[in-house]
Structure formats: C-alpha cells, structure tokens
Model the fold of this input.
Amino acid sequence: DGGITQSPKYLFRKEGQNVTLSCEQNLNHDAMYWYRQDPGQGLRLIYYSQIVNDFQKGDIAEGYSVSREKKESFPLTVTSAQKNPTAFYLCASSQPKGQGYEQYFGPGTRLTVT
Amino acid sequence: AQRVTQPEKLLSVFKGAPVELKCNYSYSGSPELFWYVQYSRQRLQLLLRHISRESIKGFTADLNKGETSFHLKKPFAQEEDSAMYYCALSGRANFGNEKLTFGTGTRLTIIP
Done:
C-alpha cells in the first residue's frame, strides 16, 4: 500500500514547540495537499501545492507553514502559533484534471500537543 | 465561496435496506462533485465522481443542479458498507489542479 507515506503515525509534542510532519509520494503527482481532520468538522484544507517551489494557503493556514522543494515531498510544520494543533493530519496528492482527477491520501499523522 | 453540507452525522440502516446519504452544495460555477469513503483502518479513498456517472460497489449518485444536491444511494445495504462517507466539491484553483471542499461526513453503520 505505497503511493503516499506519512510519518510518524503518532506524534507528541509540548506546547510551544514547532513540529514537522512528513509527506512523501512516489506517484509522480504534481499537486499535493494538507488537510486537518477533526471530529464533526470533516476535512479542512491547510495548504496545497500545484508545482514544485509553489504553494498556496488553504482555508485554515494560520499557524502552519509548508515547503515544496522536491516534487515528491511536501512537509508541514505546525508552529507554536497554531492555537489548537492537536488533530489528525492527512496529506494527499493528485494529477492535473486533464489526466484524471482523484486525490490519493496518505495514512495520516495524529498529533497530540500537551 | 463553496460549501458542502452533509446533514446527517450518523446513519444506521438494516442490512438489505436502501441507503441514502445526503449531500447539498453551494457553488457559483459549474460544480464537480465526489464521494470519498474511509473504511475502518483504511485510508480515505475516492468512491465515485459525478462526471463518470458510474456505479461503484452498488452505489450511485446523481447531480441535481436544481436542488444543488448529490445524494449517494444504494438499493440494498451490505455490512461492508459501514464506513465514514464524505461528499466533496472541487473548486477551480490556479493551473487547473482543483482543490476539494469536504463536507463534515456521515458515519454509516449497517445493522446485521
């Protein structure tokens, strides 16, 4: 079950610390996405990137940062400015619409900040 | 602005009974709608998309632009249909890669 990998599966951090979540894909997809999944709120888009060295804010970008230096990698940093960082984080990737549009998801990282 | 509403957080249906998971959307342009499913201990995955007009695992969904709905239906529920279902709408982003707006999800439980 390859394609998109996220590590680690569980992550614990103290309040005030920055933490970086890893997302790697071997699908050769151009676009990558980060979502946050909270009970009762569905998935909310944090950041997305459609091409290397470019990324856009999603609906809830405050307190988060990303980079896209390589096509296969799209790490997400949860900064100390994020007020409610404890959540389940999902990474996804897709090809452009003309090549068949479907987002492929990773297994997720559960972050707990205390 | 685009919005997806799934009014039911939880839905329980007896095995063999019909299933309908509701989805309503708000979008000013021409929408593309999807249903994603997350089975227990599995990744979120695409179930079906309206442009394909296909039936997957016995599920169908018809886009009703007049009612701005994209309800997911199956005539006879099976136990393996128990999962979390998300309706999603794509909105045009730059360069043609659409970003998705998800609903809050409906947890479907099939009662044996």
